[in-house]
Design goal:
Elements lengths: L4 E4 L2 E3 L2 E3 L4 E2 L3 E2 L4 E3 L2 E3 L5 E3 L7 H15 L5 E3 L5 H4 L2 H7 L4 E4 L1 H10 L8 E3 L5 E3 L4 E6 L9 E5 L4 E3 L21 H17 L3 H11 L6 E3 L10 H12 L5 E9 L4 H15 L5 E5 L5 H10 E11 L2 E2 L1 H12 L3 E10 L6 H9 L3 E12 L8 H17 L1
The structure holds MU-OXO-diiron (FEO).
The site of MU-OXO-diiron has 9 residues, from helix 2.
Length: 404
Amino acid sequence: MHSVREVNNEIVWVGCNDRRLARFENLFPIPRGVSYNSYLIKDEKVTLMDTVDAGASFQFLTNIDWTLSQWGRGLDYLIVQHMEPDHGANIEVLLKKFPEMKIVASAKAIAMMGQFFESDFSGRTIEVKEGDTLNIGKRTLQFITAPMVHWPEVIVTYDSYEKILFSADAFGVFGALNGHIFDDEIAFEKEWLNDARRYYANIVGKFGNNVQALLKKLTPLDIAVICPLHGPIWRTDLSLFLDKYQKWSTYEPEENAVVIIYGSIYGNTEQTANALAFRLADAGVKKIAVHDVSSTHVSELIGEIFRCSHLVIACSTYNGGVYPPMDNLLEDMKNLKVQNRTVAIIENGTWAPNSGKLIINKLLEMKDMEIIEPVLTIKSTLKMARHDELCSLAAKIADTVKQG
Ligand code: FEO
């Protein structure tokens, strides 16, 4: 049975939902699933925008077959904007199924097809580069390169006839589409924003400069609808998501808020982190989040760090170094180019507390990280005799939050 919806009377969403996949890229938990979006355009030339993951092939082919049968048409063009297998896995299937179909893609994408598939693509591809166009009837599609958003071969596609931007991975979101495919059909800020941020931060967070370059290229275009490859289609409140992208891609904190992340072996560092959260609330800080680095997935923590202006790292010393899950988080922060945050540190160690110095060294490898001094050092537990030091740290953090 088909599961399609009209974007308008000539463009149909023929994508798929995947609620079976436990981890996107075998890495990021997706308890709400994920959608792989694909769009079929009815014009003089019937054109398909991207394919879907191999795990969703059956539904995808059912959707395409049903829609084409309703139109009484075959498939003329497949535009491949992105070759990552969550979108490109069915290219070879369609190549064989529609012998007249031509594949439109960048040179890098065409080269990748030769890497992923055994089939001979010669004579079946049309190479496009920055600014090239493809006339498919009423519509002239314009191609815009978007390198590293999120792979080097990516193009996005602008349809000036309906002012639609097909945006590839840009503006993508984790989460399956529950029949509602448009931004005005869902409670985005309440139910989707966290996963939108987590998707952005972990998938393209490293490539902020490339996202900025793409946003600049899009500025002159009159865009009424954004059709991404994951998550809802934007047709109503585009500025909401564009504003988020502007902040995330410039590493500007989304909120003046504090996230406390602790790594605690027996609960003593945790107790200090909790106590700090309460002192911060006493000091008037309104938005405080607390996470255990051992139980909250690192992709969630990265999302939280992209959201918050302030980060507190409370961490045990382990084998003379940083507690391993915290070490992993710091490495991920560096790889994803986290920057421009204010950070306070609590270190713990029963005989040789050492994690604070190592954490600072790692933070200094990132750009524009402001450290709130001094590190609060505890040996095993924070004694009541040192309560003033905890309050003093809370006051310093609260002051900088209020200044922000
Ligand atoms: Fe959704 Fe970069 O693939």
